[in-house]
Amino acid sequence: MEGYKDTAKDVMVIGHKNPDTDSVCSAICYANLKNKITGTHDYIAKRAGHLNEETHFVLNRFGVEAPEYIKDVRPQVLNIEIRETKGIDRNLSVRNAWKLMDTLNIVTLPITEGKRLTGLVSIDDIAKSYFESFDNKVLSTAHTSFSNIVETLEGRVITGDISEIFDSGKMLIAAANPDMMESMIDAGDIVILGNRYESQLCAIEMDAKCIIICEGAKVSNTIAKIAKNHNCIIIETDYDTYTVARLMNQAIPVGFFMTPRDRIVCFKTTDYIEDIQEIMTKKRFRDFPIEDEDGNYVGTISRRNLLRSGKKKVILVDHNEKNQAVNGIEDTEILEIIDHHRLGPIQTMTPVFFRNQPLGCTGTIIYKMYIEAGVEIEPVYAGLMCSAIISDTLIFKSPTCTADDIEAATELARIAGIDPEIYGREMFGAGSNLDEKTDREIFYQDFKKFSINDITVGVGQVNAMGPDDIEKVKKKEIPFIETVIGDAGLDVVYLMMTDVMSECSYVICSGKNADMMMMQAFGVDKTNDTYILKNVVSRKKQFLPAIMEAMEQ
C-alpha cells in the first residue's frame, strides 16, 4: 500500500527515559555504526523522553535532527503482517466482487474512495444477494449501472447509453401477450424478453428504459431504430430468460450491501496489539481494516495475524535497568546493551551482546567500537560523541572520568574541530538556561529511578554555571519536590544542583528518612533546606553509592 512502510526489520537504538546528552548522542552514533557495519538502514535512533536544553544545543550545533520520540515499545499493528488488499469502488458489481474474493482467496473486500475507507463487503454480504428476498425494484433502489448489467450478462449493447444509472422503475419478465404487457410495464422499467417482435415493440412503446433480449436472438434494424428514438437501451445476451433473471441481482453494486465506515471496527497502525486483542475476540468480523495516523486505508488484519505478531527489536544504550527503560521494554526483543552504569535487574529472553565498561560515558565505549570496527568517524558523529563525553564527565572534572574518556574526547574534538574546554562551557551554559522551564520540566529533565531494597529512589540532576543559577533552580524546586512523592511509585527523591565551575552540588530531598540518609551518607547538616556537598558532582559514582550504603545500614 502506497505510503506504508514495513518496519519488521527495523532495530531501535534507544537510551533511557528523561534522556541526557550521552543517551541521545550515543543512540544516534551507535545506530550509524551498526548501519555502516551491516550495510543497511535498519538501525534507527529513538529517544524515550523530551530533550533538555543542553542536548538541543548539541544537535543544533552539529546540524543533526533529533531522534523520534517513542513512549512505548509494545508490539503494534504495524509490527504484524497486514494484508494489503487493494480497495474497490463501491459501484463494482456483486458478481465481480465475488470473483475477486475467489481469486485472492479472501472473504472481505474494503471499499474506498481515494485513500479513504468508506465500507467493507464480506462473503456474507454477497450471500444476501442470492438468498434474501428482494422486490422487483431492488436494482433501481441500489442505483445499478447499466454497464454492470451488461458485464454480468456478458451482453452486447445494440443501442443506448450504458453509462446511465438505473435509479427508478422495476424489473420484469415479459411472459404475457402484448395486451397484458401494456398493463404491466411502466415507464423506466427493465424488461426481460425473447425474440418476439410484438413484445419488443410493446415494451419500447411503453417507455421501458431497457429491454434485455435473451438466447442470442438478433434485433431487427427497425426495433433498434425505434428504441433509439425512445431512448431505450437494448442489450443482447446468450443466456436464457431464467438465467438472466437469476443473474440480475449480481449486477447490483457492492455499495448497496456494504457495512458503512461508521459501523466498522477499524484500527490504526499505531494501536498496540495488547489493546486490540480483546476487541477482536468480541466481534464477529473475520477481518478488520487498518488505517494510518492520517486516516488513510492501509490493509486488513484477522485474528490469526495476532498469533504471528512480532516483537520490536531494540538496542539499549546508556542504561540497563528496567525502571529507566522505555515503557513496554519487557515485550521487546533486546538485541544488545551498551552501557557504563551499574548492572540493573533487566532481564532478556535470549542471550544478548552486552558491553559494559567502567568509563565516564557511553560515548567513549561507542568511540572504541568505531575504532575496533575500522569505521571512519565523520566530523558530525565525532562532535556528538565528544559532546556526550564532555557532558557526562563535566569537562573531565567528574570522578567518573577516566584516561580513556579524555583520550577519546581529545581525538573526537580534533575530528570535529572544537576545543573541549571552550565548547563545553558553551554547552553547559545553554543547558543551565532554565528560565523558560517549569518546575516539573527542570526536575525531570535528567532524572533516574533506582530500586534499593524494595524502595524506589529517584535522583535528578541539574547542571548550573554558578551560584546565581543555583539560586534560581532552588527557588523553583524546593516547593515542588514535596509534591512528587508517590509519583510513579517514588518513595524517596533527591535533586542534585551541580555547579560545574566550583565542582560542588547542592541537594534537596523529600520522602521517608530522606534527610536521615543524607546525613548518614555525607555527614553534613542541612542549610536553608539544602545540603551542600563539596567535590561531589557525579550521581553515579559519588552520590548514589553513598545513599545506597546509608540505606543498607
Please provide a written account of the structure.
This protein is of the alpha/beta class and 553 residues long. It folds into 4 domains: 11-75 and 312-431, inorganic pyrophosphatase (n-terminal core) (Alpha-Beta Complex); 78-129 and 256-307, CBS-domain; 143-251, HprK N-terminal domain-like (Udp-n-acetylmuramoylalanyl-d-glutamate--2,6- Diaminopimelate Ligase, Chain: A, domain 1, 3-Layer(aba) Sandwich), CATH 3.40.1390.20; 439-552, Diaminopimelate Epimerase, Chain A, domain 1 (Roll). Helix content is 37%, strand content 21%. Strands 3-2-1-17-18-19 form a 6-stranded parallel beta sheet. Strand 2, helix 2 and strand 3 form a beta-alpha-beta unit. Helix 1 packs parallel to helix 13 (362-373), helix 1 (21-38) runs antiparallel to helix 14 and helix 14 (379-393) runs antiparallel to helix 15 (403-416). The two termini are 62 Å apart.
Strand arrangement within the widest β-sheet reads 3-2-1-17-18-19
Number of strands: 24
Estimate the strand proportion: 15-25%
**Major sheet attributes:** 6 strands, parallel
Q: Could you name the CATH class of the largest domain?
A: Alpha Beta
- Please state the second-level CATH architecture of the largest domain: Alpha-Beta Complex
- In the CATH hierarchy, the third-tier topology of the largest domain is known as inorganic pyrophosphatase (n-terminal core)
Distance separating the two termini = 62 Å
Helix content: 25-40%
The value of Rg in angstroms is 37 Å
CATH superfamily of the largest domain: inorganic pyrophosphatase (n-terminal core)
Q: Count up the helices.
A: 20
Estimate the mean pLDDT confidence: 91
How many separate structural domains?
Answer: 4
Uncertain ranges:
1-6
Structural class: alpha/beta
Overall 3D shape: elongated
